[in-house]
Amino acid sequence: MVDTPLGPVQFLGVHLRPAMGATGFTVSAYLSTDTVRANEIAVHAAELAGDQPAIVLGDFNEDGEPIAWLERRGFTNALPEYDRSTPTWRWQTRLVELYGRYDHLCYSRHLDCCAARVIDAGASDHFPVVGVFTLKQTIPATAPAR
To answer: pTM (2 decimals)?
Structure first.
């Protein structure tokens, strides 16, 4: 819990498992680690108090099941509301540049997002994702977990 100008907000920073096995990147690891990431987000998010504002952010290493898991619990992925295409990750190989949207900023039903964007800066292979939030005046009912 962090004291902010909005009041107390929970922050959960994640770096979920990449699509790599013991020998590095393989097709098998790519196809099998999505369930690992889904389990990781479930374990980490269980620590959040559901009645308090929360932001889950970081390197999800995908844009699939962990995001869907949070959305089923009333979270919203901020970046697609304002930018649907800018990559958050880039890696140059000898032959081609790889890119994807693996970094996310998800917020609970207690908050409204006013802006979100990717900043093309820094020395990392991941770009910063930033958002601006306000506290909702009326909080919707808890979304049922599916």
So the answer is: 0.86
